[in-house]
Amino acid sequence: MTERVHTVKESSEGPTAEDVRVQLEGRAEVLEAALRRAATLEAVLRGRGWKRRWRAHPTLVSEWLAEEATVEEALERTIRRARVEGWSDTLPVMEGLRELEARRERLKTLVRARLSRLVHVSGPPVLKVELARLDGLVGKRATMTLEPGEVLLFQADRLSPVSSGQTLPLLVSMALLYWGLYVLLLALLRGNGSRAGVALVAFIVAPLFVAWARAGRVWMTSRRLLWMPTFGETVSVPLATIAPGGVHLGPTHDLKVEGEPRLQVAHLADAKALATLLELHSQPPLLGRVRSGVRLADVVVFPASLWDAEVAPRSGWVVLRPGGVSFIPEGAGRQVLSTVTGRESTLAADVGRVLEQLRWLSGTEFDDWLTRLVTATGGLSWSAWDSLKREEAPLWKPFRVSRGRQVLMGQMEWSAQSSAELILRSWPDAVTPGKAKSART
């Protein structure tokens, strides 16, 4: 209700304040309560520490929203009756009405300003809509405690320039540091001991303090992305709020996520891996599929090479399944991620990481997606019934399987060898390492 009330300035023959309250049939009390809520909310939103004050009034927004329809009706009826009957502007009801309208206009600006710092907003502000959205974002303080059924998928720290590959800036900083130490040492030797000593300590400690203050920890769970800085409160971004294309990876390991709320973290360890996981788990087919916390067991993924007498060998990833073996070439990360998400991706994802995440699906779904990926990337699939030849070497040695002139060879991790042995036992005419040893003895 933004339309100003214009009535007569004064009228000696008009209704009294008490007459007006009676005629409004309880609407005056509704407007007075709305004015108190608006004043409280305006005080909460102004100045620093507004999130803390917001959480100190946990029912304020819910009460506002519950009464909003009643308040709007009271505003409309009061304004219309004041115009028709020519109520004086000096009546307490009219003064309160003007103050309420003014506060509601200021609240629109305040709420939009607070909300726009957290999420993308557009269009004219609608107070009740944006209040509800803001309350959903800051009404509850985020914690790093996993909720029941929540699975931790990733964790890392905000890192230093050394591990993010920024070698040149680091060397320049070190050179400046040593030059400064040299100058301060000369000052100490020339007799300016106390001042130079203080400056020396400040020169050494300040960069360390800045690096520590900007540090933090990142978690990604099956439901949300969490950022816990050294200073400030934890930020929680539900995966379901991340829009398609809302994950951006910068050149210096900077990660920007367009969710509710927005999140940007600079110099993040293994930022590409996290960006890949966010792309996969913020939309189908993997969105919400990690609730069980159990991945498909009869799958083994490991790096390998495809050898062919007619072409140069290709590096890639092998996938062992009871039904056979598949090969996805290295360097196909964009195609793999684009195929799974159904949208063009610029992120050169790690193929093996994407394949491992597909293990959260059922066996039928996994095989279906594997077939799509093989087709999209120009890989290959061999059925276990395709007259495959496999060396009878133990699985801690390089794994080798061939079909015609093509050979797949790679080394699986020790932790995957037991699963691989069970898979290979299901292949027709397969000889497991244990059986080969028994045959020789």
TrEMBL record:
The chain crosses the membrane at residues 168-189, 195-215. Keywords: Membrane, Transmembrane, Transmembrane helix. This is Uncharacterized protein. It comes from Myxococcus llanfairpwllgwyngyllgogerychwyrndrobwllllantysiliogogogochensis.
